[in-house]
Amino acid sequence: MLEDRSCLVSRDYRTESNWAACMSYRLDRIEVQNGKRPLENDEESDQVQCKLQKQSDGFNRSGVALSVGDSSASPDEQAGNQRHAGDNSDSSSLIHSIGRDNSISCLIRCSRSDYGALASLNSSFCSLIRSGELYRLRRQNEVVEHWVYFSCQLLEWEAFDPARRRWMHLPTMNPNECFVYSDKESLAVGTELLVFKKEVLAHVIYRYSLLTNTWSSGMRMNAPRCLFGSASLGEIAILAGGCDSQGKIFSSAELYNSEAGTWKTLPGMNKPRKMCSGVFMDRKFYVIGGIGGAETKLLTCGEEYDLETGTWTEIPNMSPVRTNASRNDMPATSEAPPLVAVVNNELYAADSADMEVRKYDKESKTWATIGRLPERAASMNGWGLAFRACGDRLIVIGGPRAMGEGFIEVNSWVPSEGPPQWNLLGRKRSGSFVYNCAVMGC
């Protein structure tokens, strides 16, 4: 019965005295209707389940700004704002009438879109969400929601929830000018979004935390790099290849653990490469294509890294085959890294030139065309087009542009339902293409 509910919250809860130590966590609508905000008065808290669902419906296709805390309220005021909830229950049990374990069982099945409102109920809810404990429990129970994070402006990042078709705005980054006007790589792992690039004298990593809704910097890899291939699996990610600030191409790789915040150097690949792509498939990491060798030519091979044995195996012709002979006249660096994604342990690729979708046969180690990309998915040699796995679906983010005007469209296809039939999930005006894109599943 509880599993069928989107959220279950009892009115019988109290606020702990140390609420001041826990910042409120909420969602603010950019376009607030009727002057109301989530949980604004006593009546709204009576039916939290219904209210959260109504909020979600109202937010559909609307811009939402994520924020932490209320800068206009003192800690005492924050605590006072929570006392309307009642003082007769043990807040450590979360939903007092059903106990802590059952409470968590309900909460891990709520949409994480609702966690901002839930965290504002009392300090126990806030602590559970902001500590990361709830996301660890979701992962253990195989409850995962996938959101798409992308940047179409130099310092701006947005998130898109495919299930609720909701657009959300992240806080603005605050890097220096060199970082702003440089190419970047991005990666989502655990509850973090990482953005990599070189500043004036060194490589830098900016980290967005879903738990605190803030950006920070200062993290460093063992061997700083750019133009690498990467992918994540739960709380870990692997970054392979790339090059340093002098252009030296790497064969090395590193594993990042987002929960421990640690970097571990892995054995080197068989071939150095940059501008490659990475995926996880069958719980192994694959690096595909890229540029390498003395003449910096396109590489058609891939490499498989076995996490259990710690070994790399080269796989010939794993990079998607380029059928258009005219591409041979272009410099290798003019093309985007291979647009590849894995859904249900099957590897797919997008050919932006021929507007085709291909699937990799793991037995014969060959690629076959299975359908078309969305007609309006424009790009420049693959740049400006995002092709990502998002749970059990493939996502294409791109759109038509002309004279500085255009749209960003999010199209979705579920491979298990048959040949490519793209469903438009969202569309918004944008004067630029997609600079970076990553999918966070948690």
TrEMBL record:
SUPFAM superfamilies: Kelch motif (SSF117281). It holds the Pfam family Kelch_1. One of its GO terms (cellular component) is nucleus. Residues 69-81 have a biased composition (Polar residues). SMART domains: Kelch (SM00612). Residues 67-93 are annotated as: Disordered. This is F-box/kelch-repeat protein SKIP11. Keywords: Kelch repeat, Repeat. InterPro entries: F-box/Kelch-repeat, Kelch-typ_b-propeller, Kelch_1.
